[in-house]
Design a protein that fits this description.
heterodimer, A: mainly beta, five-stranded antiparallel sheet, B: mainly beta, seven-stranded mixed sheet, four-stranded antiparallel sheet
Chain lengths: ~110, ~110
Amino acid sequence: RKEVEQDPGPFNVPEGATVAFNCTYSNSASQSFFWYRQDCRKEPKLLMSVYSSGNEDGRFTAQLNRASQYISLLIRDSKLSDSATYLCVVTYSSASKIIFGSGTRLSIRP
Amino acid sequence: DAGVIQSPRHEVTEMGQEVTLRCKPISGHNSLFWYRQTMMRGLELLIYFNNNVPIDDSGMPEDRFSAKMPNASFSTLKIQPSEPRDSAVYFCASSSTGSGNTIYFGEGSWLTVV
């Protein structure tokens, strides 16, 4: 079993829809969590950190469930520009171990 | 502020040739990472440096790959001899505890070995 798992998708949703996807992790010692976004032929870029209490940034909401060992990303009122691959990242003990998920592809259609 | 700078951006080389990829991390960052990304295998960590010292090189595929970080502002990833299966995008990234362990990526070096 992979340490960090994501549904590869693709998720194909209409513009304006709400879409959510999860990322599960296997090591309960995980400390920090992030969502990154990667556009086609570009580098991954930080979308948002994930805090224990959950956090929101505009149309994006990230949540952490330590008991069930998953993080989630919710996108409301999706835009065409949200089409990308979303990577979850889990770190252990400062920066000594950082694991990227394989990514979830999201495609927003007009 | 300058981000992570990688060179070359694109390289096409013949099998058997030596390839050297270069990276300049963000100033003040004390951790540096080399990743490889392919469609089949996704994003793989090759090696991680902390304060210029290699901490984890378990992801380096084989002896043909080597990485160095002679100082805090420069790192190289070398492949010798290169093979077609090394074709991938190679990302360098850096982070610091001051940035909350957020990793910042360079734009990548797109390598094609023919």
